[in-house]
Amino acid sequence: MEKLQVKVRIISNKKLKDNYWHLEFESRLIARNAVPGQFIEVKVNHGTDPLLRRPISIHNVSKSGVRLLYEVVGRGTQILSEKRPGDLLDIIGPLGNGFEYLRKTAKPDSSQAVLVAGGMGVAPLVFLTEKIKFISPLVLVGARKKEQVLCLREFKALGCKLIIATDDGSLGFKGKVTDLLKEILLKKSPADRPINIYACGPQPMLKAVAQLSCENNIASQLSLERHMACGFGACLGCVVPTRAGYKRVCKDGPVFLGKELIW
Ligand SMILES: Cc1cc2nc3c(=O)[nH]c(=O)nc-3n(C[C@H](O)[C@H](O)[C@H](O)COP(=O)(O)OP(=O)(O)OC[C@H]3O[C@@H](n4cnc5c(N)ncnc54)[C@H](O)[C@@H]3O)c2cc1C
Predict the structure, then answer these.
(1) Which atom of ligand 1 is nearest to the CA of 68?
(2) How many helical (H) and strand (E) elements, i.e. helices and strands, does the chain have?
(3) Residue 228 Cα, ligand 1 centroid: separation in angstroms?
């Protein structure tokens, strides 16, 4: 779908816990056409302060609404958290290239896909899980500590297998979510290993996922986060090196194949 610049009406904007918020806005068109991994650029204020829009992933969609999951980390997201139901939000979207995934398969098999989320990386992976729930993917959710583990209820409701990892061991596996992934891959014979790994999270996590997937001959798709200005490929502010030269995270990504990235 062509990107839209529109003013959309906010349906709800609620604090989930701590600094985490859910925002839902009306847009039948984006809800119908968006692909998991795509994002929108939000203008959080009238006027020019702050100047740049803020990129936020599409978390999931309903028939006529689009949901965002965001963490208040600075001024832009703070202003966003002050919006009220009924307010208009100036957005551009859907933007970027999302995840490639099987639309249907003759043989449901949970070993086909592993999703790896680190911190706020859960945001686009809930939408992806909705699309591929018929293969009951294995979802690994990692965070520093249990208070920062997000979206467990959503993943459980979608019927996927879920394993949690926290760096401090306060919930689930103690260690990095990539250590958990490594352990899972080690236990499986090559024939039982997943066919696809989808991941979103901080850069070191994505690098480790790319490495593990290459070592184990598994295809991986990674959703990258970069500071970006325009969000649609014009300013070249978010380029990353790949085996095919520099690519724009906002327009060529944010989802890239693990094997094409240079770290
Ligand atoms: C494609 C994409 C999808 C994203 N999806 C989500 C999402 O679903 N939910 C969510 O909470 N956040 C998401 N982000 C990150 C989000 O855009 C930033 O947190 C936000 O722009 C911060 O704005 P701010 O004004 O509140 O903070 P600022 O004052 O601009 O920055 C505060 C802190 O956040 C860091 N930061 C700012 N922008 C980014 C960025 N793009 N990537 C990494 N760190 C950043 C800054 O370095 C600084 O430490 C996404 C980013 C990208 C590129």
Answers:
(1) 8
(2) 6, 16
(3) 9
Residue ranges per structural domain of the chain = 4-95, 110-260
Q: How far is the CA of 72 from the centre of ligand 1 (A)?
A: 9
CATH architecture of the region 4-95: Beta Barrel (2.40)
Q: Does domain 110-260 have CATH number 3.40.50.80?
A: yes
**Pocket test residue of 3, 56, 238 for ligand 1, highest count of atoms within 8 A of CB:** 56
Cα–Cα nearest to 33, from 77, 53, 3, 74: 3
d(C-alpha 140, C-alpha 113), whole Å: 11
Q: Is the CB of 66 under 6 A from ligand 1?
A: no
Same fold, 4-95 and 110-260: no
Please name which of 103, 96, 117, 84 lies closest in space to residue 198, comparing C-alpha atoms.
117
Query: What global pTM score does this model have?
Result: 0.94
Handedness of CA 23, 28, 29, 33 (dihedral sign): positive
* Cα–Cα distance measured from residue 261 to residue 223, given in angstroms and rounded to the nearest whole number: 11
Please report, in tens digits, the pLDDT of each residue of the chain (263 residues total). 788 899 999 999 999 999 999 999 999 999 999 999 999 999 999 888 888 999 999 999 998 899 999 999 999 999 999 999 999 999 999 999 999 987 776 565 555 899 999 999 999 999 999 999 988 899 999 999 999 999 999 999 999 999 999 999 999 999 999 999 999 999 888 778 888 999 999 999 999 999 999 999 999 999 999 999 888 888 899 999 999 999 999 999 999 999 999 99
